[in-house]
Design brief:
The chain has 365 residues and is α+β, with helices and mostly antiparallel strands. It contains 10 helices and 20 strands. It has 2 domains: 108 residues, 3-Layer(aba) Sandwich (Creatine Amidinohydrolase, Chain A, domain 1); 239 residues, Alpha-Beta Complex (Creatine Amidinohydrolase), CATH 3.90.230. The chain is globular, with a radius of gyration of 23 Å. 42% of the residues are buried. The model has no long low-confidence stretch (mean pLDDT 97).
């Protein structure tokens, strides 16, 4: 890819790209299993990795092999100075300006471009897809147990306690290494806050006769999960207009789930499918209908997404996305449903391939 573009190297400032490229993971950040580092990928497929060498044990060295040269971060400028006269790609939107300044000082030619790991990372390998399926089986077991528990015992518990109980159930799987993001567990009016994050110090008690929205995910050694369910707790029933809103959200999820479309379609063209049932009732939601998901990496994996913005990265086979329509009435209630899906081949025609989605999530509504 670099050689075809006439480039000698690319700066990789994103630890998730480096983790994917070298198949390494770390624990430097909450929720995201990466090691903080930088790297230079060269056109000859060798890599200069900049990380505290003391953290690299014999097993990691053996895994990295001879094509990866490990340096201390302080050596970065010295290595960049060897790139005199070379053409180096970097993404100015994501790469610290120090790299561009240093390379200019050694008279390297700068070529603006995107991270070459992004789209290959988005197309999952057979092993990664198998890991996704295994993780969702474990995740589904934990969530089924959680839904049973929360319907029987959730009312009167705090939202933070709800989150803690779900994480404890997930952690019973040996391959679960933690949550993939801060669990959103909102009861009543808090369910209308799209990115609500309860803590033990600041949360509410789960109400009866109200919706409880729980958006959560797990990091497993083989995959990353993200799933949302909204349940009604209490002896009563929701008002009729709330039932209608929930039905529209579910219809939106089903519409996107059942889509068939030409390979190479952009995600933003499919986003309206998740909204159409809501639009017919004069309703909508103020977030994307879905995003890419990494493989034991970021739960929000750039650049894929179902959004209203014209994101121009096309959809191909073996990508993993979320499907998450919702509706939010500020100060009153909110609801969202979310599954993960894999893009699969639907059929081939003389004019090209068509794709469909296959749901990975194994959790009832």
């Amino acid at each position: 890819m670099l050689r075809q573009a006439g480039q000698d190297a690319v700066i990789l400032p994103d630890p998730t790209s480096i983790a994917w490229l070298l198949n390494i993971r770390g624990r430097d950040l909450p929720f995201l299993p990466v090691a903080l580092c930088f790297a230079i990928l060269h056109a000859d497929a060798t890599v200069d990795l900049f990380i505290d060498i003391a953290r690299i044990d014999d097993a990691v060295r053996s895994h990295l092999g001879t094509s990866v040269r490990v340096h201390m971060p302080a050596d970065m400028e010295q290595i960049l100075q060897t790139m005199h006269g070379k053409t180096v790609r970097l993404d100015p939107a994501r790469c610290p300006i120090w790299f561009a300044s240093t390379l200019k000082n050694v008279e390297a030619t700068l070529a603006e471009g995107t991270d070459p790991c992004l789209m290959p990372r988005a197309c999952k390998t057979p092993a990664e897809l198998d890991g996704m399926r295994r993780a969702h089986l474990l995740d589904g077991i934990a969530l089924c147990r959680f839904l049973y528990w929360v319907e029987a015992h959730g009312v009167g518990k705090t939202e933070a306690a709800i989150s803690d109980h779900l994480l404890a159930l997930r952690r019973e799987a040996e391959t679960c290494i933690g949550p993939s993001f801060h669990t959103i567990a909102g009861s009543g009016p808090n369910a209308a806050i799209m990115h609500y994050a309860p803590t033990a110090e600041q949360c509410s008690v789960v109400q009866a006769d109200a919706f409880l929205l729980v958006d959560s995910g797990g990091q497993y050694t083989c995959a990353t999960t993200d799933v949302t369910r909204t349940v009604w707790l209490g002896a009563g029933t929701p008002p009729e207009d709330w039932k209608k809103q929930y039905t529209c959200v579910l219809q939106g999820l089903i519409a996107l789930d059942q889509a068939v479309f030409p390979a190479g379609t952009h995600g933003y063209r499919l986003d309206p499918l998740a909204r159409l049932a809501l639009w017919k009732e004069g309703l909508d939601f103020d977030h994307g209908a879905g995003h890419g998901v990494g493989s034991c990496l970021s739960v929000h994996e750039w650049p894929l997404g179902f959004t209203r913005r014209p994101v121009l990265d096309p959809l191909h086979e073996h990508m993993v996305m979320t499907n998450e329509p919702g509706f939010y009435a500020p100060g009153s209630h909110g609801m969202r449903l979310e599954n993960q899906m894999e893009t699969c081949l639907a059929y081939k025609t003389e004019t090209g391939d068509y794709l469909r989605f296959k749901t990975l999530t194994l959790t009832p509504y």
